[in-house]
Amino acid sequence: MNEKTEVNMTIGIDKIGFATSQYVLKLQDLAEARGVDPDKYSKGLLLNEISIAPLTEDVVTLAASASNSILTDKEKEEIDMVIVATESGIDQSKAAAVFVHGLLGIQPFARSFEIKEACYGATAALHYAKLHVENSPKSKVLVIASDIAKYGVTAPGEPTQGAGSVAMLITQNPRTMAFNNDNVAQTRDIMDFWRPNYSTTPYVNGLYSTQQYLDSLTTTWDEYKKRFDWTMNDFAAICFHLPYPKLALKGLRKMMDKTLSQEKKDSLQENFDKSILYSQMIGNIYTGSLFLGLLSLLENAENLKAGDKIVLYSYGSGAVSEFFSGELVEGYETYLDKDRLSKLKQRTALSVEDYEKVFFEEVELDESGSAQFAGFENQDYALVEILDHQRRYSKVEK
User: Fold this and answer.
1) Taking every annotated instance into account, which residue ranges of this chain make up the domain Hydroxymethylglutaryl-coenzyme A synthase N-terminal (predicted)?
2) Could you give the number of structural domains in the chain?
């Protein structure tokens, strides 16, 4: 039997949801404030806007919002594992997943933990979830990719900042996309992007990181094709990790070989353009960027159908890369939000001055290690206080 068909059961993404912050910064305004040609952002990065998270919004609140948007009360009783992938963790010991588990009211007999490997972490979480469901077919696993990308005022990465969370319910007999048993991963011990414990912002070797992203793509793709006999003709679309969409476009061009017809190239390009729509309005969300691209593709592409295969390229600095694929399930459109673009346009736009105040505000604790917060009325979940160094979250009553 061909290796790529050796699957014991159908497992994949049953439902997928997303949440971002209520604030947005238009990069046209940022370019003017920084004395930069706006084309450097809109054409050089393929970015137009970035989401800005206030102090009361973090990876926990975003994760809870994304998850609650797709889960029923029944599913909260059936989930037996919660995994949060993040590189914006809020505690060195307690997992963000434990906070989310409590906020959502998921039944108590569930494992909850956090995974970290830069932007790759959610892909590892999906694989772990798949293995768990293979072992316990009645299980439902909530996998959440939640991050806030923050670089600093005037930093080279400033226009690629962002905030958001993608939640995925992983089950047997999924209703959105079934995984193929074809993961191929590669690890390289490099320093292209990192953030030591003592730093609130990352260190980036930008050109080197770009080179590693593209070289890892090429070498992992070659290994993937060799192991499973896939070619680009087998796939209706490819989704990329999206630190910024222009880098993914370079990746797409590397994968467009001479064997493809012009019609196939045009179709892949069309679907790529649909896959970056949300990222162009939100920016980089680290672990969630690949899956935000998948969501954007599914909710906006006009030429996809059940049975189509989609290949995904995951990359996390440091570095781990992976290719894997999935197949769209009959009726997948039922579980998507086709009105998301218009909802994103309803966010509150910030001036550059207000963005700098909101995004870079820091917690000021009193002598007891406590602080009270306000201004979170428009959030679904919020960090409402820190009491004796303990973060306290709450669902916001509307």
Assistant:
1) 19-172
2) 1
